[in-house]
Specification:
With about 60 residues, the protein is α+β, with helices and mostly antiparallel strands. It has one domain (about 5-60): Ribosomal protein L30/L7 (Ribosomal Protein L30, Chain: A). It has 2 helices and 3 strands. The protein has helices at about 20-30, 45-50, and strands spanning about 5-10, 35-40, 55-60. A 3-stranded antiparallel sheet has the order 2-1-3, with no helix packed on it. Helix 1 (about 20-30) packs across helix 2. The mean pLDDT is about 95.
């Protein structure tokens, strides 16, 4: 079975002062601190969260 595609997501800007739904997306991706990087599976749900808060993130293929 093929390994699922993964994305490396890094939080570049602060979550403070953001909309509640945007802070929820940050938490949903598993991010807590600025410059923290997490690896998430490339699913439509994760893509939606990434697209919503793209102005706070850096994303690259893992």
């Amino acid at each position: 079975m093929a390994k699922p595609k993964e994305l490396k997501v890094t939080l570049l800007k602060s979550k403070f002062g953001r909309l509640k739904s945007h802070r929820a997306c940050i938490a949903g991706l598993g991010l807590r601190k600025i410059r923290q990087t997490v690896t998430v599976v490339d699913t439509p749900e994760n893509r939606g969260m990434i697209n919503r808060i793209s102005y706070l993130l850096a994303v690259e293929e893992a």
